[in-house]
Write a structure and sequence with these properties.
255 residues; alpha/beta; eight-stranded mixed β-sheet
Length: 255
């Protein structure tokens, strides 16, 4: 088979999926294994933020090219997962991904967004696709503000998200996240993949290292966390680096 034959099947759930918690709609897409319609398998799921930047080469700042990554992983026999891509809210993006009050950006709607995912989107996906709906097989991820809200979602819903793919999280905007990480109590074994670039901003890597230190301290104290911290010494805050990191994170979290 050629790489093209391993391409994931991309299905649009809805162009304007209703999010009553935000009084908004979003395009939501599913990337299914290339052989999804020829098997009766059930699959783990990864919910990713910033859907516009995940498999669209025309995206303004480049894309993660997750469709190409999944095709290559499929060649290695590592395609057994479903990815749900949720578009961001354009000018509302920061506010919707912000989980805490910020003096410049306001109260933030992040908790409403997570409520939508947990109460509406995840049940919809589990009903309409052949998923493995349990904690161990449900992951969440994103980059920048999408990484921040994914981390917050994982910390605040320990019985829902067993895997977190956190790329270059905007920790600077919500220092409360450090306290929430300290008080995080996983119900079962959680897997957290954290990535940071050394050239993203002056405080980015130190913040990520602080987060890493808190997580490692919890592991020493006996909390059930499997943790991987990846640092790119040349990495800046850009899609190209998240594209490179994505297949590594998928392998570590799911395979």
């Amino acid at each position: 088979m050629t790489v093209m034959e391993f391409d994931p099947i991309i299905e649009v759930l809805e162009e304007a999926y209703e999010i009553p918690q935000l009084n908004a709609t979003r395009k939501i897409s599913a990337l299914l294994p290339y052989d999804y319609h020829y098997t009766d398998k059930r699959y783990p799921v990864l919910y990713l933020q910033d859907g516009q930047n995940l498999f669209n080469p025309q995206a303004p700042y480049g894309d993660w090219a997750i469709d190409k990554s999944m095709a290559k992983l499929a060649e290695e026999g590592l395609s057994d997962m479903i990815i749900i891509a949720i578009d961001h809210g354009e000018e509302e993006r920061v506010n919707e991904y912000l989980p805490y009050y910020h003096p410049r950006f306001g109260q933030g709607k992040g908790n409403f967004y997570i409520e939508f995912m947990v109460e509406r989107l995840i049940p919809y996906v589990n009903k309409n696709f052949r998923t493995l709906p349990n904690f161990e097989n449900t992951g969440i991820g994103g980059s920048s503000m999408g990484g921040l809200i994914s981390l917050h979602a994982g910390l605040s819903n320990p019985g829902v998200f067993g895997k977190m793919m956190i790329f270059s999280p905007s920790l600077w905007i919500s220092k409360t996240i450090f306290n929430n990480t300290k008080s995080f109590t996983p119900l079962q074994k959680s897997k957290i993949y954290l990535y940071a670039g050394a050239k993203e901003s002056l405080e980015h890597l130190p913040n990520a290292q602080k987060l890493s230190g808190i997580i490692k301290e919890k592991m020493v104290k006996g909390h059930h966390i499997d943790f991987h911290f990846s640092i790119n010494d040349l990495g800046n805050h850009a899609e190209v680096h998240w594209r490179e990191e994505f297949p590594k994170a998928v392998k570590w979290l799911y395979f």
